[in-house]
Amino acid sequence: MDKVTNAKRAQILTAAVPYIKEYTDKYVVVKYGGNAMTDPELKKSVMQDLLLLNLVGVKVVLVHGGGPEINSALDKMQIESTFKDGLRVTDEPTMEVVQMVLAGKVNKGLVANIVELGGKAVGLCGIDGNMIKVHKKNADLGLVGEIDDIDTTLIETVISQGYIPVLSSIGVDENGVAYNINADTVAAKVAGALQAETMVAMTNIDGVMRDKDNPTSLIPQLSVAEAKQLKQEGIIAGGMIPKVDCCLEAIEAGAQKVFIINGEIPHAILIELLTNEGLGTMFVK
Ligand SMILES: Nc1ncnc2c1ncn2[C@@H]1O[C@H](COP(=O)(O)OP(=O)(O)O)[C@@H](O)[C@H]1O
Ligand SMILES: CC(=O)N[C@@H](CCC(=O)OP(=O)(O)O)C(=O)O
Predict the structure, then answer these.
(1) Of the chain's two ends, which shows fewer C-beta atoms within 10 Å, N or C?
(2) 243 occurs within a structural domain
(3) Does a structural domain hold residue 126?
(4) Which residues are known binding-site members?
């Protein structure tokens, strides 16, 4: 591979300046989770990219998932994982594990990655500061929360001190009971509450495809109306439905652009936000 010369580096950085300006002082909510988060080296590289965005003045908020990690912890404890419409049926023992894994292992692991890279990060879940208030979504799902309100005070405060807030998708009801929430949903609601410029959902597929098994069928841009049409046609299916719904929710809440990108592509978020090479699917009004 060609050696990157200083001249080439300068050229790359100069080309990024107008894009950096577009996001400086704006909230960018990043959802990171699922299978894109299982490789430790890739995870560090994503944290490095987020730190870079934070250092150039972008108000980065990281919302993480951890479905595969929860599954493996439940397996070890011989607790069965059950899903309905993509949501984990969460009884009390399952909720204990969800909280241990998300707010403990995964959250502190991501914070440690950023700290190791020389950055500042604070790990929070929706219980902290009574940030994500929920009620029970429905009796069949157990302790799965429907979000009523997000108080962004804590997020804004830590960002004003230079920290990257790292949020786990756990909420709390009026009795102090903890609830499990899908991380894409939390990202979209946080983006809405912060009036974020952008939300980026990092997953392990390139974006929305016309044919999900054909990588050349990626759809680079979708309006809200076009996305709704593709859902009706059944082209957007399975796990992509709730993800696209969250993207549309963020757009309808005021985000200018929302992206689904493949977090397994090295530096995908920098390429998507700071260059003119679109990688994934961009949603616009
Ligand atoms: N039109 C489509 N384009 C891309 N992926 C699709 C489409 N329809 C269904 N899918 C499926 O949705 C999956 C993404 O959702 P999911 O696995 O739940 O993501 P994550 O684990 O990152 O939250 C893809 O791996 C793919 O199998
Ligand atoms: C209610 C519900 O399903 N919560 C999710 C929360 C984690 C998540 O969303 O993780 P990914 O983004 O990695 O899928 C769960 O228990 O798996």
Answers:
(1) N
(2) yes
(3) yes
(4) 66-67, 88, 180
> Ligand 1 centroid vs 103 CA: distance in angstroms?
25
Tens of pLDDT, residues 6-28: 888 888 889 999 999 999 999 99
pLDDT in tens, 69-103: 999 999 999 999 999 988 999 999 999 999 999 99
Domain that holds residue 271: 24-284
- Tens digits of residue pLDDT in 175-234: 999 999 999 999 999 999 999 999 999 999 999 999 989 989 999 999 999 999 999 999
Q: Euclidean distance between the first and final Cα of the chain, in Å?
A: 40
Q: What is the CATH number for 82?
A: 3.40.1160.10
Residue 6 lies in a domain: no
14-16-21 Cα angle (round to 5) = 110
Residue 41 neighbours by CB distance under 10 Å: 8
ipTM of the complex: 0.94
Mutate to test the pocket of ligand 1, among 83, 182, 203, 217 (most ligand atoms within 8 A of CB): 203
Q: Which atom of ligand 1 is nearest to the CA of 203?
A: 22
Q: How many domains does the chain have?
A: 1
- Asked whether residue 19 is assigned to any structural domain, the reply reads no
User: Would you say how long the chain is, in residues?
Assistant: 285
pTM more than 0.90:
yes
CB 202 within 8 A of CB 269: yes
